[in-house]
Amino acid sequence: MAVNENQPDWGQMAEKFDLWLPQIEPVGNAMLNALAARAGDSILDVASGTGEPALTLARRLKGDAEITGVDAAQGMVDAAMAKVEREAIPGIHFESMPAENLKFDDKTFHKVMCRFGVMLFDNPAKGLREMQRVLKVGGRMVIAVWSAPEKMPTLRWSHEIFKDRLPPENQPPLEAATSLGDPELLEKMVTDAGFHGVSVMSKRFDYQFETFDDYWDLLEASDILKRQLDALPNVDKAQLKNEVWQFAEEFMCADGLVIPHEYLIASGVK
Which of 83, 12, 81, 37 is nearest to 230 (CA)? Predict the structure, then answer.
């Protein structure tokens, strides 16, 4: 994952970040379907965080491919490598590396992917050009980014709650997270990076919890709002929880709390 000034400290929250993996698993599965990796491929996962979806792919291919994951945060890399070692997963390793300066030769990989990373790069256009550079001719790239702010409810709720309490540099990164949420903008950026046959699709998945308390407990346990709460040491958490509930209440249904989110999958070929 990239590291910008108004984002969480991804390195410090690496282990806790895994608490969210079950919620975003559908995105990784959709990306892997679009990537269509196969035995014998060399594959790069950029901004892979604690290892997904690279680890899922490695488990599927069972050592019949060479998979490399990179992330700018050493804490994320350490967490990913711990999983590799714990499960003895073959054919995969992770390195600490910024997306905008990949330490690989031109035309190294058959496939490149990036889940929810490009929009948070310090320089998304440069990161995409780097991904294109390290692809072999005919190689395929697949990325996922968040859609528009109005289609990302949970981050929008956080933004609304903190916008009048904190200066801009300490607010949740709604603008950065949704900066590539316009399909036309994303298509142009991918095309400008040198890819052809570019496709951009809007897709939906849901955060699902049995109760609102389950959702709030995950927010607290994962430290996703740690930066904001640390900046407000005397904040009334019960009041914050009540304000979030005012947003979440409309998404309660017979199945519990079901919060729809939209994301974009872009793919292209070198």
Answer: 12
